[in-house]
Amino acid sequence: FGIINAVLTVFEVTIAASIARGVSKFVAENEASPRTVINGAFIIQAVSGIFIFAAVFFGADLIADLLQDHGLSGYFRMLAFLIPVTGLAIVYESSLNGIRAFGRQAVLILVFHISRLVWVLSFVVMGLAVKGAILGLIVADITRLFVGRYFCRELGGKGSIGPMKLLEFGVQMCAL
Which of 29, 86, 94, 112 is least surrounded by Cβ atoms within 10 Å, i.e. has the fewest? Predict the structure, then answer.
């Protein structure tokens, strides 16, 4: 689980350092049209999430072999499902930051971390061991996605922030 969690942390930090900062910045700059920023970020996260999902899912055997533990391949395949969900959930969390809804953002983060603890422990106690822990991480991120969607439901508007501008900013943030 430590190895799987370390790989997940790398993905989460990369997402948070790139697109999430861009979403927060552009939503703050375009308060009248946050939905346009969110939609642009969803396009980026969906495309990159599917690409990374496919790379991890279909490359799980290779990754496990590189780590000299073929038993990890099934866990990497499970982890692959978490990557696109995490990317989409972070868009909502960053949007709340951009509109300065810090209370709702804090609630979302709290719900996410509590649900992560509860779901992981629940599935492990059910006897699912490491697979249960990974399943708990997936369900917790799905929970964060739906709570974030609920908190951002009233955000609307139209504007000129498209996916390419977000992507350009995100690449710059990763380079730092």
Answer: 29
